[in-house]
Task: structure prediction
Amino acid sequence: MSADFFFGQSRLLTEILLTSIAAMETTNTNVQLRKIQAPLALRSLQNAIMEHVADVNRRLQAGLAVRQTQTSFEVHELEKAGAVLRVSLTGENNIHYTQQIKRHNEMQSGVIYVRASQDGTPTILFSDFPSPNVEVSYKEASNRLLNSSF
Result:
């Protein structure tokens, strides 16, 4: 085998290694961004939920209240102990939710995926069967999470 062959193989391996390192750096950057931006996404969703709850309370006199902790929040009916909606951060920096589906008298849970962005504004994605994750606004997410509880 010639020296050109070995040089070509070495060059190919170097390119593969550099591509792999760049992909790992991108992944690490995304993980760090999600770690920073996931709490922001949770608070943005909470703000949208609070606006939705205020609107529903005003229009329907529903008697809903939002209670929060550092990494989660819940929507309760004022006179009942159980939450109609629980939302919290997961260990993977996504958002987990559990919602009451009144028309079926059941609880449903799922994950809203947080997509980090370089500009500091995270977006959220719902897993919509049968299609893959669908990007939604915080207001749309609020509607999806609360409307089934009425």
Remarks:
- DSSP finds two helices and seven strands in the chain.
- The chain has a mean pLDDT of 83.
- Helices lie at 3-60, 138-147.
- The chain has one domain: 3-147.
